[in-house]
Structure formats: C-alpha cells, structure tokens
Amino acid sequence: MRWMVRGDIDGFFGLALDNLVQLLLIDALCRHVLGFPADLIYSQVLPGVAVSLVIGNLFYSWQAMRLAKETGRHDVCALPYGINTVSLFGHVFLVMLPAKLAASAAGASDPARVAWQAGLVACLGSGLIEFGGSFVAERLRRVTPRAALLSTLAGIALAFISLGFLFRTFARPVVGMSTLGIVLLTYFGRARFRGGLPGGLVAVVLGTLLAWLTGVAPVQSAPPADAGFCAPVPVLGELVRAMAAGHFVTYLSVIVPMGLFNLVGSLQNIESAAASGDRYRTAPSLAANGIGTIAAALFGSCFPTTIYIGHPGWKALGARAGYSVLNAVFFTVVLLSGTLAYIAWAVPVDAGMAIVLWIGIVIAAQAFQATPREHAPAVVVGLLPGVAAWGALMAKAGLRAAGYGDQGGPQFGESLVAAFAKTDTWIHGAFALEQGFILTSMLLSAMTVAIIERKFLAAAAWIWTAAVLSALGLIHSYRFTGGDTALWIHPAWPWATGYAIMGAVFVLARWLTVESEGHP
Q1: Measured in whole angstroms, how far is the alpha carbon of residue 103 from the centre of its chain?
Q2: How many other CB atoms are found less than 10 A from the CB of residue 167?
Q3: Helices 199-214 and 6-28, packing angle to 10 deg
Q4: Is residue 301 within 8 Å of residue 23, measured between CB atoms?
Q5: Distance, CA of 200 to CA of 206 (rounded, Å)
Q6: Contacts of 498 (CB under 8 A, 6+ apart)
Q7: Buried-exposed string 288-310: b where 16+ CB fall within 10 A, e elsewhere
Q8: pLDDT tens digit string along 226-247?
C-alpha cells in the first residue's frame, strides 16, 4: 500500500474540518469563558495541542501501513484521531470554569492561570487512565453495561453540547439555521453536493459568509499581535504546582469517569474499524491515544485526544494512511505559526456550530440505538444527572449575571436554597446532583439495567457503590463559594444513607416480591 493515494485528500479535508471546529471552540471558550490571555493560548495551549495531534496521527498512519504489509492488502484505512469533543466541554465547564470561579472568590491574582493548571491536571489524569486502561479495556467493557456508558456520555452531549449550541443557533438564526439545514441534509439525509464537496465544508463556508454579511464576524478587531511562531515547551513546573494545589483530588469525580469514557469510546471505534475489515490490535491503539493525551498535558494543552468515530466513512472515501499524515502536518503549521488566530478571526464558531450540534445529537441518539431496546429506560435514567448538572450550571450563570458573587454584591449561600424553594425549585438537589454527576449517571443507569434484567443483587452492588462514593465525598457533597458551588470532599451522609437503603430494598426483593405478568 502506498503512503498517499487520491482518497487521502478527501479524507484529510473531512478529518481536518472536524479538528478545525474543535480548535475554534478551544480558542473561543478559552478566551471568552475562561478569560485566558492570548499569550497563554498561543504560546502554551495550542502548541500542546499540536504535539498531541502529531503523536497520534503519525502513529495511526504507521500502524495502517504495518497492517497493510502484514495482510498484503491495499485498502487499509488509518484510525481517525483528534481532539475529544465531549472532554473539551467537560474540562472547560466541569473543571476549568469552577477552578477559575473558586480562585476569583478566594482573591487569586490570576484566576485564569489557576483554571489552566486545573485543566492540565485533568488532561494528565485522563491520559494516564487511557494508557493504563488500554491493558484492561476489554474486561472493563464486559463488566459495565453499555447503557451505563453511553447514556452518561449522551447526557453530557445532550446538555453541554447540543442545548448550548441550540440556544446559539436560535440566537443567531440567519447563520445558525442555514448551516444546520445543510448539516442535517447531508449527514442525516445522506445527500451529497455535486462535485463531491463535503457537506461540512459547505456549511462552514456558507456560515462564514453569512457571519460576515450579518456582522457576526469578525469576533475581534484583529488577530492578536503576539500570535506568531511558538514552539512547544514542557510545562512540568505548572503541573507540579497544580498537583500541589490539590486540583487532582478536587476534580477526581470528573477526571476518572471522563478518562474511562475516552477509553471505552476509543475501544468501540476500534471495533467499528474491525467491522470494516481493518482489525487493529487493541492495546497499542488505545495506549497511543493515552500517550497523545499525556503529551498534550506535558506541553500545555488541557484537552484530551481520542480515536474518532467514523472510520468506515473515511475508508469509504478512499482514505488510507496518508490522510493522517496530512492532518498532522497541517495542524502543526496552523498551531505553531499562530495561523489559528487569523482563522478564528475570519471564521467564527457560529460558522461551524451546526457540526458540533450534530455531533451532540449523534452521541445522544447512539445511546438508544446501540443498546438493547429493553434497556431504554436505563438510558433515560442515565441522561437525567447530566441534564440536571447543566440546569444547575445555567441557574448559577443566571445568578452571576444578576450580580451574585461580585465583589460587594450578594454571595452564594444557604439563603439561595430557601429562595428557590419558595418557587418550588429544589435547587439543593440540583447542586447535589451536579457534583460527580458523571459517576452518578453511570451508577444509576447500571443499576437500572440490572433491575430490568431482574439481577437484584447486581443492582444492589451498583447502588451501594454510589453509597460508598457519597460517604467518601466524591459525589453529591458540595459547599458554597462566593460565586459558585464546588465539590466538597466531605461525607455526604444523607445520600449515602439513601443509597444504602435502596440497596437493601433490592436485596430483600428476592423474598418480599414476586414477578408480575405485566406492568404494575
């Protein structure tokens, strides 16, 4: 098999477009949500992203050539690889933003830097889990019900990705709805533009044009002056300081499940490639992904990488090994030269938000499509904590917009719980669900699957695990800061007790209940 064929060009444009949208999101979220200065973004974060993309893309390209040589085939397609969309949002809104708000409330001189350090720790933790888990991934997947894994991922996708971008779509309908129509037509309607133009590319070009015509673009007056060439530089000192500050323990309830999802999601995509005829060895494929994420953290990026979904699509386009090499070269140039600053200036996130919205929809839909039909209730149960966490985030954002948490203004505290209760809004429950909601989602969904299958002892085991995590303070335990709520590593006894009683009910069900013929 040759390193480069005609189909690699088509595959490159598709994969590069996916990664470019993620990079535009990183640029926008880091600047507007986290308040990162341009120097931090272009001299530390983006070069770290470049390192991670180079490592993975070159490895998977080499791996494809090796498989082609071993099998004597000429149609082997490399595994697609890039920034993990779900982790991107998870790290921004569940790790870095809370870290920034807590630092601001504590009077830190540079809250944005604290947020960056917390993101580095989260990225490093995710990479270590991905690498270490590559040797036990198959066993992990056999133990955990698919509904528990996919529904938790779907909850994040539905709430933190889809709903947020749906708001933005309808806030800027000329750009948002036009591009959404193209994405739905080409991705769901399986329609192709004449000339072979990718639907995503057409959507981004049209969105950019409409953004300029309607005044949405440019999003800033000019690209930052300090967005020139920046070589990757290790940030070991920042990681040591971040570990010493306790960020790893504080955000452990996010880091562990997100790392597991990245691991299992990549495993499923390797299986998808096998179904298309390209059977790659599991351990090295997953380990390379983990190494890419670890390298990202060591060089300043807060964003894990992943093996992308869609290998059969790239293979159908004729992509082989070269499209991964082209992807590595292109983003090395774009990210190290400061070119992304000019792209972000000319192409607002709004131009590509329909693609991100589509990704969220697909992830949420997959939770139902790829699980047994009878497990659908478990999928819904797994969705709820993620939606609740997003609702809590929106409530707190509304309070901050009204001046809560500002210096000299009203502060977050127990009085908020009483005020919300007057409107029959049980915000205390939302704040409790928000803390460690990824773990809660997984455990509740797994419990529901066990109940559906009438494995009551297994259901008790899953829910007693939640009781232990509550007693350790890894889920549901929270405290108020000046302008936020934060995980409090302190026993959450009410929830631990509730879970313990639930487990006891499941154990006793063997003697206290009989199977009914139909629904109660």
Answers
A1: 23
A2: 12
A3: 40
A4: no
A5: 10
A6: none
A7: bbbbbbbbbbbbbbbbbbbbbbb
A8: 567 889 999 999 999 999 988 8
Answer whether 354's CB lies under 8 Å from 179's CB: yes
d(CA 289, CA 81): 8
CB 151 within 8 A of CB 257: no
pLDDT digits (tens, 9 = 90+) for 100-118: 988 887 888 899 999 999 9
Interhelix angle 236-244/111-133, nearest 10 degrees: 100
Residue 373 exposed, middle or buried by CB count within 10 Å (0-12, 13-18, 19+): exposed
CA pair distance 466, 462, nearest whole angstrom: 7
Token output for 251: 């955000």
Of 181, 282, 298, give the one whose Cα is nearest residue 236: 298
Residue corresponding to tokens 């870095």: 96
Residue 469 pLDDT class (50, 70, 90 cuts): very high
Do 444 and 377 touch, CB atoms closer than 8 A? no
**For the chain, which residues make up each domain, given as ranges?**
6-226+233-370, 375-403+411-512
DSSP string, 76-98: --PPPEEE-HHHHHHHIIIIIHH
Structure-token pair, residue 121: 């720790």
Where is 308: in which H helix or E strand?
none
